[in-house]
C-alpha cells in the first residue's frame, strides 16, 4: 500500500534523462537564478459569445498547443470591453494592456466566478477525440493562484506546471502531453 502510480511535475535532467529532486537543485547555489521571462497574450473566443475573446497571459508559448483550460481568480474583478470590432475580457486592473483609455469602451464589470464554466474555442483541438468520458476540456476554471499583478488576470493551463496540474486534477480537466525526453 506504499507504492502507487501518480503524476507530478518535477525537474528533469536532459543529459541523464532522469528526474531531479528539489534537494539536488538546491545543493548548488548557481543552479537557480531569477531571470525575466518574455510573456505573450492569447485571444480565446468564447464558444457562446462569438466575437468576444478572453485574453489569457502566458510565459510558456510552447504549451499553447495543449491548453485544455484557462484559469481566472473567482474574486478578482473582470471587465468586458469593446475595442474596434472585437470584445475582450480581462481583469479590470490590467486594462492598461489594451492601450489608451479612449481606445476601448467598458461594457460590463463582474467577478471572475461569472466566467467559471464558460467554454472557449481552442487554438488547437487535435486531441479532442482523446478526451476521456467524464473529463472536461476547453473550459474556464477557478484558480486562487491567478493574480492581476502581471498579465491579464487570466492564465493558460497545461499539465506541465505544478499549480496547473493540481488545478487540472481538482477540476477533472483532460491532461494532454505533447513533449517527451
Write the layout of secondary structure elements.
Blueprint: E1 11-13, E2 18-20, H1 22-27, E3 40-46, E4 49-58, E5 69-72, E6 77-83, E7 86-91, E8 105-111, E9 139-142, E10 154-157, H2 162-170
Concise description?
It contains two helices and ten strands. Helix content is 8%, strand content 30%.
- Count of DSSP strands: 10
Content-based structural category: mainly beta
β-strand percent reads 25-35%
Task: Give the radius of gyration.
Answer: 18 Å
Q: Which outline best applies?
A: globular
Percent range of helical residues = under 10%
Q: Ranges with pLDDT <50 over ≥5 residues? A: none
First and last CA, distance: 30 Å
Assembly state: single chain
Order of strands, main sheet, comes to: 3-4-7-6-8
Order of helices and strands: EEHEEEEEEEEH
Largest sheet: 5 strands, mixed
Structure explained in plain terms:
The chain is mainly beta. 8% of the residues lie in helices and 30% in strands. It has helices spanning 22-27, 162-170; strands spanning 11-13, 18-20, 40-46, 49-58, 69-72, 77-83, 86-91, 105-111, 139-142, 154-157. The chain has a five-stranded mixed β-sheet with strand order 3-4-7-6-8, with no helix packed on it. A three-stranded mixed β-sheet has the order 9-5-10, with helices on one face. Strands 1-2 form a two-stranded antiparallel sheet. The protein is globular, with a radius of gyration of 18 Å. The protein starts with 10 loop residues before the first strand and ends in an 11-residue tail after the last helix. 28% of the residues are buried.
Amino acid at each position: 500500500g506504499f507504492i502507487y502510480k501518480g503524476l507530478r511535475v518535477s525537474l528533469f535532467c536532459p543529459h541523464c534523462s532522469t528526474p531531479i529532486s528539489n534537494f539536488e537543485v538546491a545543493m548548488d547555489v548557481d543552479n537557480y537564478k531569477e531571470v525575466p521571462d518574455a510573456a505573450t497574450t492569447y485571444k480565446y473566443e468564447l464558444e457562446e459569445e462569438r466575437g468576444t475573446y478572453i485574453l489569457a497571459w502566458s510565459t510558456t508559448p510552447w504549451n499553447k498547443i495543449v491548453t485544455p483550460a484557462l484559469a481566472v481568480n473567482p474574486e478578482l474583478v473582470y471587465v468586458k470591453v469593446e475595442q474596434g470590432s472585437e470584445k475582450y475580457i480581462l481583469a479590470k486592473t490590467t486594462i492598461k494592456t489594451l492601450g489608451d483609455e479612449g481606445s476601448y469602451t467598458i461594457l460590463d464589470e463582474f467577478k471572475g466566478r461569472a466566467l467559471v464554466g464558460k467554454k472557449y474555442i481552442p487554438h488547437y483541438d487535435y486531441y479532442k477525440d482523446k478526451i476521456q468520458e467524464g473529463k472536461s476540456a476547453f473550459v474556464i476554471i477557478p484558480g486562487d493562484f491567478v493574480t492581476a499583478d502581471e498579465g491579464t488576470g487570466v492564465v493558460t493551463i497545461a499539465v506541465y506546471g505544478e499549480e496547473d496540474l493540481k488545478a487540472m486534477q481538482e477540476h477533472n480537466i483532460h491532461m494532454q502531453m505533447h513533449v517527451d525526453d
